Amino acid sequence: MLCQDGDLKDLKRQGVAAEEKWDGTRVKIHKKNGIVTLINRHGIDYTHRLTELVDAAKAMKGDFTIDTEAVYINPATKEVEFTPSQRRCSTQDWAKQYVLRRQYPITAEAFDVTELYGLDVTKQPFLARKKLLFELLEGAPLEIQYTPYTFELEKAWEDVVRRGAEGLILKDINSPYEYDRSCKWLKLKNWKLQIVDIVGYTPGKNARSSFFGALVLSRDKKFVGCVGSGFNDWELRQLKDLFSVAPKIPKPFDLEEDYTALDIKLKVEVKYYKHTEVNIMRFPVFSRIIS
């Protein structure tokens, strides 16, 4: 089941519960006849990549399928960090995983259950499934945690903003589990805004071939990422015209993707989720031209 985008007005809705939006990788944990498999949302097998979750599921009683987010929680800051979980989930080499498991232990934040003791429970309402999940996870190993919910939506959002967390998932309390993108689940991301300098652009492809692909951005003369979404047609044309008359300069940053560097005194506002450990904006979206 996947979410649709919501907005802050949805915090006023009735019959809705709020859960933490975890910043990790979606993983379903299947256990049948003592055999555990981990599958991500694209059908990729993670069983041999996240072995601590396999061990934890094997230690639990019965058969089940639970929906989780595999996250890394920094023990020093207690904050969820995306890059370590991404490394764990993308590394296939067993020797490297052996090292990474000790460096970046993964926790499965379980938020739903779809099968329990051989029974399909997807048709049961959200609150009933949460009760089943809570009972299943009582006494479970610490590697698999129950994700709580609250009906105090606005208070939950204030807490997300205060902590700088990723956001909330709002869920219809009577909703079944659907194997599709559904308006019964809404995601609210805790976007941040930043004003940055344009230092160049990447070539456009397909429908954007006559414009540009993404803006190459810097702040305080340091690379902070590229943004290629959020533009309307007028903004694409305006930026293209400005780029056509701006002097080209040597590239200030070495990037994997080719780009054209410009001497252009132009700032834009970008919304993003958070910075990576090396100060790159995650999920940047163009907002507006500043000057």
| Full CATH superfamily name of the largest domain | DNA ligase/mRNA capping enzyme
Estimated structural class: alpha+beta
Report Rg.
22 Å
Q: Summarize the main sheet.
A: 7 strands, mixed
What's the layout of helices and strands?
Blueprint: E1 2-5, E2 16-20, E3 25-32, E4 35-40, H1 51-59, E5 64-73, E6 80-81, H2 82-90, H3 94-103, E7 107-116, E8 119-120, H4 126-137, E9 144-146, H5 153-163, E10 167-172, E11 181-189, E12 192-201, E13 215-219, E14 222-227, H6 233-245, E15 260-261, E16 267-272, E17 285-289
Parallel strand pairs: 1-11, 7-9
Antiparallel strand pairs: 2-10, 3-4, 3-5, 5-6, 5-7, 7-8, 10-11, 12-13, 12-15, 12-16, 13-14, 16-17
Task: Report what the structure shows.
By secondary structure, this protein is an alpha+beta fold. The protein folds into two domains: 2-189, DNA ligase/mRNA capping enzyme (D-amino Acid Aminotransferase, Chain A, domain 1, 2-Layer Sandwich); 192-289, Nucleic acid-binding proteins (OB fold (Dihydrolipoamide Acetyltransferase, E2P), Beta Barrel), CATH 2.40.50.140. It has helices at residues 51-59, 82-90, 94-103, 126-137, 153-163, 233-245; strands spanning 2-5, 16-20, 25-32, 35-40, 64-73, 80-81, 107-116, 119-120, 144-146, 167-172, 181-189, 192-201, 215-219, 222-227, 260-261, 267-272, 285-289. Strands 3, 4, 5, 6, 7, 8 and 9 form a seven-stranded mixed sheet that branches. Strands 12, 13, 14, 15, 16 and 17 form a six-stranded antiparallel sheet that branches. It has a four-stranded mixed sheet with strand order 1-11-10-2. The radius of gyration is 22 Å and the shape is globular.
